[in-house]
UniProtKB/TrEMBL annotation:
This is Peptidoglycan recognition protein family domain-containing protein. CDD domains: PGRP. Residues 1-94 form the Peptidoglycan recognition protein family domain. GO terms for molecular function: N-acetylmuramoyl-L-alanine amidase activity; zinc ion binding. SUPFAM superfamilies: N-acetylmuramoyl-L-alanine amidase-like (SSF55846). One of its GO terms (biological process) is peptidoglycan catabolic process. It comes from the Eukaryota. Belongs to the N-acetylmuramoyl-L-alanine amidase 2 family. SMART domains: PGRP.
Amino acid sequence: MSTPVPNVIIHHTEGSFCNTRATCSAQARNIQNYHMNTRKWCDIGYNFLIGEDGVVYEGRGWTTIGAHATPVNPISIGIAFFGSFTSKWAKPSR
């Protein structure tokens, strides 16, 4: 994928929130397993994920096209926040 990327697509994982490196890493692996084993994708769909611990976790990274927002995957990166934000606002940064 060429950079700079013209589009950034923001997602939420619609799962549990996480606030430690251990729980966020475990959730990232669970999402990766779901995407690979159930959806039959080659890897986790997101390029990056962000936890409440403030850490950015690398999914597919900068160089691999994500699987997060058809048909704009080739011209975007997907960033997912751990958790569900349909009924809860994201916490402000510290």
